[in-house]
Design brief:
By secondary structure, this protein is of the alpha+beta class. Helices cover 25% and strands 27% of the residues. Helix 1 packs parallel to helix 6, helix 5 packs across helix 6 and helix 5 runs antiparallel to helix 7. 40% of the residues are buried.
Length: 314
């Protein structure tokens, strides 16, 4: 089978590797290289790096809604295109170019969590399970018919970054086990139930702001869901403070004002929420290096009675 692959970030690399086992990949399409790091040097996306290691042709169009790009895709004479986390909505000229259209690996159990950030919102909203959906793409945002899903349970302390790694491997399994069945017609794509649809919008820096007046569970879930980006953050003595690691605290009835440090131990600082409390295990004051709780306490950055406040980026 002649195939195209559309994908950009690290989560899509295992699917690319799996596709290479079952199809002749004629081209890999990625987002353009982006500035990264303190030096803002251009960095290739992970899918591009892996494709080049495999000796595959890589295309990185700055615009995809052009006749020139549509012609490139048509001239590839691909039987199908496999898409995972490409980062752009494909126009009809691309969706209809391969003989069997474009098939997407979406990182949620559709129709739940349609959109750009399904992994992060699954964690931030406290979902107990999520997964990968294999679907036929249409012009909508993750609205196409579904071939099948595979689900996994979320870990109690799992971050969005850690979950992405597991979902990437799950997607590769689906490529090996279900994709060929879908292409052969052994799996029939069924329409989604619109009444059950929820959205997972693109993240902004504001989404990382910690609301200490919410429950401890909500604070813990939001911090995990925003890791590694945009990162959970708060204010301490007027300075931005990054929350790098939290754990739920046993609820023993001790209360305090939301954001107040109730107790300090070598392993962490206990912080009151609107209901319940959490342990801060690792954090970072703006402009300084990340520190474990023991180091934060030793340097007197934190002490009993310290008060965190909800922060909003400027």
């Amino acid at each position: 089978m002649r195939a195209l692959f559309f994908g950009t970030p690290a989560i899509a690399v295992p699917a690319l590797d799996a596709l290479a086992e079952i199809a002749d990949i004629v081209a890999v399409i990625c987002q353009p290289d982006r500035p990264a790091g303190r030096g803002l040097e251009l960095k290739a996306p992970p899918v591009k790096a892996r494709a080049l290691e495999r000796g595959l042709e890589v295309l990185q169009p700055t615009k995809i809604r052009t006749e020139e790009f549509a012609k490139l895709i048509r001239d590839a004479h691909a039987e199908f295109a496999l898409v995972m986390a490409y980062g752009r909505i494909l126009p009809p000229s691309i969706l209809n170019a391969p003989a069997k259209g474009c098939i997407n690996l979406h990182a949620s159990l559709l129709p739940k969590l349609r959109g750009a950030a399904p992994i992060q919102w699954a964690v931030a909203r406290g979902e107990r399970e999520t997964g990968i959906t294999l679907m036929q793409m249409d012009e909508g945002c993750d609205t196409g018919a579904l071939f099948c899903t595979r689900s996994i349970a979320l870990g109690e302390n799992e971050t969005a970054g850690e979950l992405a790694d597991r979902l990437g491997e799950l997607a590769a399994i689906m490529v090996r086990d279900e994709l060929r069945r879908a292409l052969a017609g052994d799996l029939v794509a069924k329409p989604q139930l619109e009444a059950e649809a929820t959205m997972a919008p693109m993240l902004t820096k504001e989404d990382g702001a910690v609301d200490w007046t919410s429950t401890a569970t909500s604070v813990h879930n939001r911090a995990r869901g925003m890791s590694p980006w945009p990162g959970a953050h708060t204010l301490l003595d007027g300075k931005r403070f990054k929350i790098l690691s939290l754990r739920m605290a046993a609820q023993d009835g001790e209360e305090g004002a939301p954001g107040e440090v109730l107790a300090v131990e070598s392993a962490g600082a206990r912080i009151a929420c609107g209901s319940g409390s959490v342990w801060l295990l690792r954090g970072q004051v703006e402009g300084k290096k990340p520190l474990d709780a023991e180091q934060l306490l030793a340097g007197r950055t934190l002490s009993i009675g310290s008060r965190f406040a909800t922060s909003l980026p400027t």
